[in-house]
Every structure is written in C-alpha cells, then in structure tokens.
Specification:
Strand content: 35-45%
Order of helices and strands: EEEEEEEHEEEHHE
Largest sheet: 5 strands, mixed
Strand order of the largest sheet: 7-4-9-8-11
Number of helices: 3
Radius of gyration: 18 Å
Length: 208
C-alpha cells in the first residue's frame, strides 16, 4: 500500500457559518459517517499560509521572536504570513513575507514541505519554502505594527534549532517542521533535489 494522502469528501447534509472573523471563520457541517449516521463537525476555515526557512551561507536560519497571545508565549518562528488574496501565488506571498518581516531577499527558492497544521479542527494548509542565497532587500522597510512591532530577529545555526526542538524548547509548528525537514532533505537526496518553488499545491490551487 502506498503511504500517500489522498483527497476524499464525505457527504455534507447541512452547513452553517456561526462565526465570521477578520481573516478566518468557523463552520459547522453535518457529515454523513460511513455507517450512515450524521455527525456534527465544527472547524476553523482558514485562507492558508506560507512560511520561509531562510538559510544563509553560514548554515544559519533566520528566525523571528514574536508574542502569540492564544498560547501566552513569545515564540521563535520562521517568517510566515497568510494567503490574503484568493488564488495568490504562494511563492510571491513568501517573498513578500520575507521582505516585510526580515528585510531580506533570496535568489534560490524551493518547496521544503506542505502541511495541514491542525487537520482535526482547521483546514489551514501551509507551504514552507526553503530560501537560499540571501541578501538585504531593496527599497523602503515595511512599517510594522501590533505584535510585529515587538519582534526580534536572529540567525541561528541549524543544529542549535534542532537541539531546541528535541529538547521541547521550541514549539512553533512551521519552525519545527521546517527545520526537521531541512535536516531530512540535506541528509537524503540533497537540498537541490527539493521540489521547484512553483510546484503544484492541490490544497491551495494558484496561478503561476
């Protein structure tokens, strides 16, 4: 049996959206189960996200420390952001986020991995890019506000991040998945064997 996720959609008898927020909403679906019974499922509807593991020529990853109110923590993360525009090209969104959050640009882009962050309760899909050949961005710096105004930036050796992940000291989903995927790719077929930056993404279809 091939170990591969496959698309499938069970019958929905009824659907409601009891809450609509600024960027996300909550949907309630009545879903027909395999035995014929109907079960109610509540989940967050999310536009999707992109994240960037930016790796410099010294083997360091660009990370950001930011306050996250739901978990009451300041978390070390990799640059990331929402896909605000339906059908937006995820590579363009990732390049924008790297510029806005870190004032950095990259010449080499590849897809590191695609994940569903919380598939039991949210339909958010994230594409994590690997960005290399880094340099300072051109143009005016992006004006930050709210939590982003308190952000800290650092460049941390990959090995230090791996140790932090395995020690339970680093918790951000995209950082954990990105760093461990980087190590797996590096020790496997190599980073140049990763998918191209414009690889199809069925979870969030886009125009090239």
């Amino acid at each position: 049996m091939a170990i591969k996720d496959t698309p499938e959609e069970w019958e929905v008898r009824a659907s409601d959206t009891p809450f609509v927020g600024n960027k996300t909403s909550v949907r309630t679906d009545d879903v027909v189960m395999p035995g014929g019974a109907v079960a109610r499922r509540d989940y967050q509807v999310h536009p999707g996200s992109v994240a960037v593991l930016a790796l410099d020529d010294q083997g360091r990853v660009l990370v950001i420390r930011q306050y996250r109110h739901p978990v009451r923590h300041k978390l070390w993360e990799i640059p990331a952001g929402l896909l605000d525009v339906p059908g937006e090209n995820p590579l363009h969104a990732a390049q924008r986020e790297l510029y806005e959050e870190a004032y950095v640009k990259a010449e080499d882009w590849r897809v590191l991995t695609d994940v569903y962050t919380t598939p039991g309760g949210c339909d958010e899909a994230v594409r994590i890019f690997l960005a290399r050949d880094l340099s300072e961005a051109d143009g005016q710096r992006f004006e930050v506000e709210d939590e982003e105004a308190d952000m800290e930036l650092a460049r941390v050796p990959v090995e230090d991040l791996v140790r932090g992940v395995l020690a339970g000291e680093l918790h951000n989903n995209c950082l954990v998945v990105g760093v461990l995927s980087l190590i797996a790719a590096r020790d496997g077929d190599g980073l140049d064997a990763l998918r191209p930056a414009e690889a199809p993404w069925p979870a969030r279809p886009f125009e090239a």
